[in-house]
Structure formats: C-alpha cells, structure tokens
C-alpha cells in the first residue's frame, strides 16, 4: 500500500479541498481525495505503486479533519464542515500549527493503539472464561488456580534461582545468579494463551 501518510500529515490535501469549497461534508472531502489518489496521473502516484486502500484513505481524512477542528481551522456542525482559515499567514505560525497538528495526530494514534490493546485484553479474558467454563463442565478443572492479576517470572531451565520472601509476604527478592530472566504480567500471559489456542483450533 502506498505510504501517503506524510502527505495527509501536512493536511494540505484536506485543507485545500475544504478551503476551496468553503462549506462541505466529510463524505465530499473523502470522495474527492479517494478519486485523486486513485488517479495514476495524480502527482504523488505512479502506475507501479500498489492500489490504494479506500478505507485507510477515508480514515486518514477523518483524522485530518479532527486535527483541523482541534486547531480551530474548521468548524463542524453535525455533518457540515465550514472553513474558518488559518489564524495567521505568518510562516512561523503556520509551522507551529503544523507541529501542533503532528502532536495531536500522534496522541490520536497512541490512543487508538491503546484502545486496540485493551480490546485484545478483553477478548483474551473472555476466551479464558470460556475455556475455564468448558473445563469445569468436562470435569477437567484444575484443583489449583492462579488469580488475576499476577506476575510471571521466566528464566532458563538450568538457572539456579535464590528466592527470599518477607514475613509480611509483601516483598519478594530473586537472585538469578547472572542468568537472563523476563517478567510478564497477566495480560501478556492471557494474550499468549489465547493466541496459542487459536492456532491450535486452526490446525484441527
């Protein structure tokens, strides 16, 4: 897929379309931009580049419009989008606005990634509950269980580990004697377990 992220990052295509129309809608902007990026005569496109993902383009347009609205460059009233214009034509101010747009876009992308991670964790927990219920119905439930949350300490099979636990059970000291080790939280373990079960189900 063509990497047009930098083009949209500058907001130039979206700004140009909204500014030229004065008042428009998301669908109009997205349709026009999809048409431009689908045209092999468009300056940013060469015939040997992969076909565009229309959904990805529309998502990028949606993000760009949100950035412009947050910067006060456009006004949004339900489905209607109105061009307000840049606060100043000063080059320094424009550069500051673009930098702010980049920061806002970065925050949006981080929040989207965090939301995706939370959705993955929730799906893993649902799968774990379903698995435990099935084991219980089949009379295969283990006698010992591990409660959430927990921390898994992983090291090499041949490692010599010295363990000390405080009297109040609040402090645990590990000495791995220079052997490499890793720490995993319960979210990582549940996600790994869910992935393994999905692979097993596909091979059956």
TrEMBL record:
InterPro entries per the UniProt record, alphabetical: E2F-DP_heterodim, E2F_WHTH_DNA-bd_dom, TF_DP_C_sf, Transc_factor_DP_C, Transcrpt_fac_DP, WH-like_DNA-bd_sf, WH_DNA-bd_sf
Residue ranges constituting the E2F/DP family winged-helix DNA-binding domain according to the UniProt record: 3-85
Cell compartment(s), UniProt: Nucleus
Main location as per UniProt: nucleus
Keyword tags: DNA-binding, Nucleus, Transcription, Transcription regulation
Pfam families: DP, WHD_E2F_TDP
GO cellular component: nucleus; transcription regulator complex
Chain ranges of the Transcription factor DP C-terminal domain: 92-204
Gene3D superfamilies linked to this entry: Transcription factor DP, Winged helix-like DNA-binding domain superfamily/Winged helix DNA-binding domain
Family: Belongs to the E2F/DP family.
Protein name as it appears in the record: DP transcription factor1
Organism: Physcomitrium patens
């Amino acid at each position: 897929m063509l990497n047009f992220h930098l083009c949209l990052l500058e907001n130039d295509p979206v700004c140009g379309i909204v500014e030229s129309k004065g008042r428009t809608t998301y669908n109009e902007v997205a349709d026009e931009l999809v048409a431009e990026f689908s045209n092999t005569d468009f300056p940013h496109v060469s015939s040997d580049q992969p076909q565009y993902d229309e959904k990805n383009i529309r998502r990028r347009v949606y993000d760009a419009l949100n950035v412009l609205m947050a910067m006060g460059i456009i006004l949004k009233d339900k489905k209607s989008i109105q061009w307000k214009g840049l606060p100043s034509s000063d080059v320094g101010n424009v550069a500051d606005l673009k930098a702010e747009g980049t920061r806002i876009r970065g925050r949006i992308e981080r929040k989207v990634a965090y939301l995706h991670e939370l959705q993955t964790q929730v799906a893993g927990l649902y799968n774990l509950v379903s698995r435990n219920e099935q084991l219980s119905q089949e009379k295969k439930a283990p006698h010992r269980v591990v409660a959430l949350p927990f921390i898994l300490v992983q090291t090499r099979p041949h490692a010599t580990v010295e363990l000390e636990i405080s009297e109040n059970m609040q402090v645990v000291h590990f000495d791995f004697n220079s052997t490499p080790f890793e720490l995993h939280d319960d979210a990582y373990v549940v996600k790994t377990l869910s992935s393994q079960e999905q692979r097993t189900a596909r091979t059956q």
